[in-house]
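[step 3/7] fold_predict: job queued, chain A
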Amino acid sequence: MNPDDPLLQILACPLDKGPLHLVKPDGPETPEALYNPRLHRRYPIVDGIPQLLPSSGEQVSDDEHEALLKRMAQ
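[step 4/7] structure written:
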């Protein structure tokens, strides 16, 4: 997924309906994902398709949240 993709403007978190942020892979073991910093939830992107079911999201730790915020700022 491209950061300029217009789809990112309309995608929303299934839990709080707020905007999501694209997180690019940090290496081969970290997949591309959409992140909700308000709820500390990450949603995977599988084969270019965002998995936005509430059950697909995973809660991230405070340390991982800080790391994701830094990656989003780049």
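[step 5/7] annotate
The two ends are 16 Å apart (CA to CA).
The mean pLDDT is 90.
exit 0
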